[in-house]
Amino acid sequence: MTDTAAPRTGTFLTYSPATGKPIAEHPVHGPEEVDRAVSRARVTQGGWAALPASRRRDHLLRWKKALAHRLNAVARTIAEETGKPAGDAALEVVLTLEHLGWAARHAERVLRRRSVGTGLFTVHQRASLVHRPVGVVGVIGPWNYPLYTPMGSIGYALAAGNAVVFKPSELTPGTGVLLAELFDAAVPAHAGLFTTVTGAAGTGDALARSGVDKLAFTGSPGTARKVMAVCAETLTPLLAECGGKDAVIVTGDADLDAAADAIVWGALSNAGQTCAGVERVYAVRDIHAALCEKVAERARAIHPGAETDAGYGPMTLPGRLDVVERHVSGAVAAGARAVLGGAGSVRAPYVTPVVLADVPESAAVMTEETFGPVVAINPVRDVDEAVERANASRYALGAAVFCRGGRAGAAIAARLRAGAVSVNSVLGFAAVPALPFGGSRDSGFGRIHGAEGLRAFTSVQSTTVQRFTPPITLTSFDVPAATRERAVRLARALHRRR
Ligand code: NAD
Q: What pLDDT is recorded for position 2?
């Protein structure tokens, strides 16, 4: 395809973020095609849900195996569409495999029927609950981790017995299409259970209106609000994974080299386009200057580009360059110190590393998601002030703490509002499939990954089975008033005691 190519009617083109050249043409799926995919998914879901859990597990593990076999091809598509280095794309596939494997292997244990205790007036009942699939799950994905992020919903929803219709970002449709092709090839008996539909906002909107039983959205809070308004019309449940403004707290006794190493990676990898990437650092005043120096020294050695030795690639979404430039120049104009780089670091399509210090807390770079290779390091009086500032954000997704001793770090972590915290590492939680992931406030709601991530795509059915006729039946019009009064007296006496 040449760079002068124009999309045909009903199609759109994807472009290489590095060169601007077209990559591929994809159909724009409208409401009709989306509805058709959802109907087909609904037809196949019954058979999938009826399978013994072990059969579903085997099918999903076959899909995982197929993904592992095609790791290079999948990573190539991710790298092409996002611009990220091949090594990063391969790592994304590896993380995805870990999650898919965990979901497939643990769904039966997490979701199977379990008995619960009964109460004073219900000893004659046997009570249990079971998590049943919701039906068809719609998944709307972002472009920054086009495989790993949506798989946090897709893999777990399928493992829980649902069908899935996936709408990838319009920047990364090829990755989504390849994922569905691999599923159909690995699980041919259930073709249609997992479908990818392509397009931009209109296609996502059609999916939100299609009558899916739950929608899992990952993207910006602004889009989440629009999607939620549409879901509200039909009371379609929504899971929202949105942006972050993650903070790292560094205490006076922390290993500064380890902290600097992790901060640089957390802030710069994937060009800073990570929802739980490092954007703010609060360092205790005594070590602030030393930390800034160490971070700048390491960041200086990292450069973006398209070469194999590049630390990270271009900004995937060209429009983000302006946001990064505005955040950096706004901070400097407000009195921040540019320890490394500055507004001049924005050279489309790349942004070289930017390290800022002493940034006013009201600056956009401290309050809005920058989503670029920029980190702000501010001094704080003590850990209390660090916790207060970290929690002051309208986002609450991830966080990290660097200090001596895991126990002290865990105590600080417990005071943070974030949905996930790593002590003495960054993003440690993202690679542990058993750990739920998600945030609150503008970072969204609900959890993917782990047992909660499986349960997120189920609805609970509670059952009681009467074992024998109780001495006091309260659910009958035939109960004499005296019996009812005796029951109330008995309950009151018991509840008054404790
Ligand atoms: P975005 O909000 O622009 O788009 C997300 C998805 O929504 C895309 O597929 C897009 O086509 C679709 N969409 C857009 N308008 C829509 C509408 N009106 N109705 C339905 N769908 C619509 O976000 P993005 O730029 O693709 O992704 C970046 C954002 O995602 C960042 O804020 C990042 O922090 C966040 N993110 C969060 C997580 C997480 O797990 N919390 C993971 C990755 C990315």
A: 43
Measured by CA distance, the residue closest to atom 8 of ligand 1 is 169
Closest CA to 448 of 238, 244, 203, 247: 238
Pocket test for ligand 1, best of 78, 139, 140 (most atoms within 8 A of CB): 140
CA dihedral 325, 331, 335, 341 (to 10 degrees): -50
**Ligand 1 center to residue 165 CA distance, Å?**
16
Query: How remote is the CA of residue 353 from the centroid of ligand 1, in Å?
Result: 24
What spacing in Å lies between the alpha carbon of 442 and ligand 1's midpoint?
13
Please give the model's pTM, rounded to 2 decimal places. Answer: 0.96
CA 219 – CA 242 distance, rounded (Å): 5
Nearest to 404 by CA among 291, 294, 272, 258: 258
What pLDDT score was predicted for residue 5? 62
In contact, 414 and 390? CB cutoff 8 Å: no
* Angle, CA 148 vertex, CA 276 and CA 321 arms, to 5°: 55
Q: Which of 413, 406, 357 is nearest to 386 (CA)?
A: 413
Which residues of the chain are modeled with pLDDT < 50?
Answer: 1-4
**275, 368, 441: residue to mutate for ligand 1 pocket, most atoms within 8 A of CB:** 275
Q: Which residues are the active-site residues? A: 241, 275
Helix, strand, coil % in the chain, rounded to nearest 5: 45, 20, 35
Q: How far is the CA of 233 from the centre of ligand 1 (A)?
A: 21
pLDDT value for 421: 98
Cα–Cα distance between 390 and 416 in angstroms, integer?
A: 7
Pocket of ligand 1 (CB under 6 A): 140-145, 149, 167, 169-170, 200-201, 204-205, 208, 218-220, 223, 226-227, 241-244, 275, 317, 369, 397
Instruction: State the CB neighbour count (10 A cutoff) for residue 52.
Output: 9
Q: Report all structural domains of the chain as residue ranges with CATH numbers, in order of start.
A: 11-242+450-458 (3.40.605.10), 246-433 (3.40.309.10)
The amino acid present at 484, given as its one-letter code, is R
Tell me which residue has its CA closest to atom 30 in ligand 1.
219
Q: Is the dihedral of CA 360, 363, 368, 371 positive or negative?
A: negative
CA distance to 116, 190, 277, 323, 424, per residue, from 374 (Å):
50, 45, 10, 11, 21
